[in-house]
TrEMBL record:
UniProt keyword Oxidoreductase present: yes
Organism: Bradyrhizobium sacchari
Keyword Oxidoreductase set for record: yes
Pfam families documented for this protein: CMD
UniProt domain Carboxymuconolactone decarboxylase-like: residue ranges: 44-108
Stored NCBIfam families: ahpD_dom
InterPro entries the UniProt entry points to: AhpD-like, AhpD_core, CMD-like
Domain of life, source organism: Bacteria
An MF annotation (GO) of this entry: peroxiredoxin activity
Name of the featured protein: Putative peroxidase-related enzyme
Length: 181
């Protein structure tokens, strides 16, 4: 059960409205997470700006795979439903790759290195080893790319924590619990 109400359109703060309207237009409906998050224009618009900037980082399959890996570690059921949906419909990842990403891996070797690093970052709270960094560099990522992976981990963690605190009602198709995949 939701711990904070998703706002109806007429109750959205004016400073959140343009951002929320853009998401609604792009997604085709207003996700409950966003309608809840919009209550704080400061937090909502800051997250939206970060999301917009990081949508240019890496490629969509890698971004969605990182989102799945991070959401799995953080136990965010809402984000797992969103990232599973976007991974399938936007990134065009096959079901097997979605499951691999939730487990911190990918079928593509380069993407696998990024997803493994993202999982290690979240599990170790950023205390990765020199070998972890070298492995992702050896896969073809630059230090700038590694910084983008760290930023993606932080951004996905922000929404994971938000959703774990407020429990917005799910509005994307349910996914199987991690124990059954």
């Amino acid at each position: 059960m939701a711990r904070a109400a998703a706002l109806k359109q007429e109750h959205v703060p004016a400073a959140s409205k343009p951002t929320l309207d853009l998401f609604t237009k792009n997604v085709g409906f207003t996700p409950n997470m966003m309608a809840t998050f919009a209550q704080s224009p400061i937090a909502f618009n800051a997250w939206a700006a970060l999301l917009s900037s990081l949508s240019k980082a890496l490629d969509v399959k890698t971004r969605d795979s990182i989102g799945l890996a991070v959401s799995e570690v953080n136990g965010c059921d809402y984000c797992l439903t969103v990232h599973s949906f976007t991974a399938e419909h936007m990134a065009k990842l096959p079901a097997e790759d979605i499951i691999l990403a939730r487990k911190g891996h990918a079928s593509d070797p380069k993407r696998d290195a990024a997803v493994q690093l993202a999982r290690k970052i979240i599990e170790s709270r950023g205390h990765v080893t020199d070998a972890d960094l070298q492995a992702v560099r050896d896969a073809g990522y630059t230090d700038a790319n590694i910084m983008e992976i760290v930023a993606l981990v932080a951004m996905y963690s922000l929404t994971n924590f938000f959703n774990n605190v407020f429990h917005p009602d799910k509005d994307f198709p349910a996914v199987a619990p991690a124990g059954s995949i």
